[in-house]
Amino acid sequence: MSSEITIVVNPTAGRGRGAHAAQPAASALREAGFRVRTVVGVSAPDALARARAAVAEGTGALVAVGGDGMVNLALQAVAGTPTPLGVVAVGTGNDFARTLGLPVRDPAAAGRSVAEALKGARLRDIDLGRVGDHWFGTVLASGFDSRVNDRGNRMRRPAGRLKYDLAMLAELAAFKPFPYRIGLDGGEVREIEATLVAVGNGASYGGGMRICPGADPTDGLFDVTVVGDCGRATLLRVFPSVYRGGHVNHPKVSVYRAARVELAAEGVTGYADGEPLGPLPLSVRCVPGAVRVAGP
Around Cβ 159, how many Cβ atoms within 10 Å? Predict the structure, then answer.
């Protein structure tokens, strides 16, 4: 393995934490004996092109500094290759790092963790989800939560999480379940009214909401959480329990396990790792051992 490590940075992650986090992470890697070069793209496509070039040139590892969006970008460069992925999680959600037990919002500790894993060959292969040519590591969300994302992304103010809190209140006011068609592993298609459907390779999204609490990114299967046709009052009662995963015990919630999932619903967008994929229908498959991660 090459001793040169490539760091790819999202300078806007966590309201600017990404730009500041690269330095202590790089210092930790250099102290461990690695040569480090940093890539900062002028746009997401530019950053991805530079990351892919580094992988093609044989970099020893690609280290993503930022949040889940930056990790998602890095996955597009390393998935299906032997190049290890390191994560310095300094974004708002950091659900990929949470799923794998990696340091969160401590760039020096994250840099040391990546260095120790690379020097000690403590690498592990984990599963990824794939939609067409796009990879994701945590959760593909659709339904009520994706509508909240749609609305929040259209809002210019306020900044940060408050924007999405306001978007959620606005969506609740106009809320009604969506008619879904769900296919699992090529079997019988279920036609149901659902509030949301989440396809989980990892357990959480949205900064620790454990929407698929039993998901294991090493078992070759998704956990598919379906919240049925509950009303606004029920949704508000169930919502707080999502942070501990208790919602799966509610009678309106069903959980399935599958390696391939087909989702269709009119007027619903799919989001994976918090990034928009486009409107349903979408075909999702779990690819075992698709990426090698440097970490404990």
Answer: 9
Domain boundaries, the chain: 4-121, 139-293
Contact between residue 38 and residue 7 where contact means Cβ atoms under 8 Å apart = yes
DSSP label of 188: P
Residues 63-73 have pLDDT tens digits of 999 999 999 99
Q: Are 170 and 177 in contact (CB under 8 A)?
A: no
Q: For residues 270 and 260, what is the distance between their CA atoms, to the nearest angstrom?
A: 16
Bridge partners of residue 87, in order along the sequence: 64
Closest CA to 135 of 58, 190, 72: 72
The tokens 């990426």 sit on which residue? 291
Beta carbons of 280 and 143 less than 8 angstroms apart: no
Residue with the bigger pLDDT between 41 and 32: it is: 32
Q: What's 4-121's CATH class?
A: alpha beta
CB 155 within 8 A of CB 166: yes
Give the pTM.
Answer: 0.93
Question: May I ask the CATH architecture of the domain 139-293?
Answer: Sandwich (2.60)
Alpha-carbon gap, residue 252 to 271, rounded angstroms: 22
Listed in sequence order, the residues at least 6 apart from 237 whose beta carbon sits closer than 8 Å to its beta carbon are: none
